[in-house]
Design brief:
It contains 11 helices and 4 strands. The protein is mainly α and 295 residues long. InterPro entries: ABC_transp_permease (IPR001851), BCAA_transport_permease (IPR052157).
Length: 295
């Protein structure tokens, strides 16, 4: 049996895969947080609840209407994104001129409300969601068996992350969004609807959380608590990458997911805290984060 640092290669690669999968969800969720904070300056504590909503929408589409995984992968993020846009337009937009703390408190209250509502209707226990038939089974790579669905999760999340980064950084719409956050009055003077751009931004961030929720449904059980169990780790990822940094959210999400997976091999007792230890070290050495801009 092949060994690396005294560890069987199958165990090492298995945990590396687990780290990549977790990193995929960290990257998607922290990307949504970074988009919202970077463009709206709102710390969206409801992000975990929106992730949970995406998984539940996929589950309800299947159980109530018979709509399967592939359509749900498009429909659920759209529904969550439209819900987020409605929240932003009717309530959150009223808080932009106030201290950032008000936005944080509002989204925290929204998260508790959503989680409580889903617990009221569905209970606290998780419900299974089967992956599509095309993505069942595993591929023999020689040194390990790679579950097809988990490989799909890594590929799909990476593709979406790159797509969103290109949208924000390389398109005219992205330049409008970035300009609107720097000088909304000037942008509006050119005839651009700045409030609509801000609504789109929050809806996009919520949709990314919903997309991550659909991807997570076959991996984890669909539960009202699935978002609250993850959101603190995702905030740590965002802080390490740099608040508001799109590229930082993506790179750091995967990097910390892999670090967490490898820690389970070499020092399992520290796997639950390794991300927070890394966050503390980064904040000491570089308070703005790895990709953040110094004030």
């Amino acid at each position: 049996m092949t060994m690396i640092f005294g560890i069987p290669i199958q165990a090492l690669m298995g945990q590396l895969l687990v780290g990549l999968i977790n990193g995929s969800f960290y990257a998607l969720l922290s990307l949504g947080l970074a988009v919202i904070f970077g463009l709206l300056r709102v710390i969206n504590f409801a992000h975990g609840a929106q992730y949970m909503m995406g998984a539940f929408v996929a589950l309800l589409l299947l159980t109530q209407t018979g709509i399967g995984y592939w359509p749900a992968l498009l429909i659920a993020p759209l529904i969550v994104g439209l819900f987020g846009a409605l929240i932003e337009r009717t309530m959150l937009s009223r808080l932009y001129k106030l201290d950032h703390l008000y936005g944080l408190l509002f989204t925290f209250g929204l998260a508790l409300t959503l989680e409580g509502t889903f617990r009221w209707f569905f209970g606290s226990s998780g419900q299974p969601y089967a992956p599509p038939a095309a993505l069942t089974g595993a591929v023999n790579l020689g040194f390990m068996f790679l579950p097809i669905y988990r490989g799909w999760v890594v590929v799909a999340s990476l593709a979406v992350c790159i797509g969103v980064w290109l949208l924000i950084e390389k398109t005219k719409l992205g330049s409008y969004l970035r300009a609107a956050t720097e000088n909304p009055t000037l942008v509006q003077s050119f005839g651009i609807n700045v409030p609509l751009l801000l609504t789109f931004t929050y809806g996009l961030g919520a949709a990314l959380a919903g997309f991550a929720g659909v991807l997570a449904a076959p991996v984890y059980q669909v539960s009202p608590l699935m978002g609250s169990n993850l959101i603190i780790v995702v905030f740590a990822v965002v802080v390490v990458g740099g608040m508001g940094s799109i590229l930082g959210a993506i790179v750091t999400g995967y990097m910390l997911g892999i670090a967490e997976g490898l820690t389970k091999v070499f020092y399992p007792e520290a796997s639950n805290i390794v991300i927070f230890v890394i966050m503390a070290i980064v904040l000491i050495l570089r308070p703005a984060g790895l990709f953040g801009k110094d004030a």
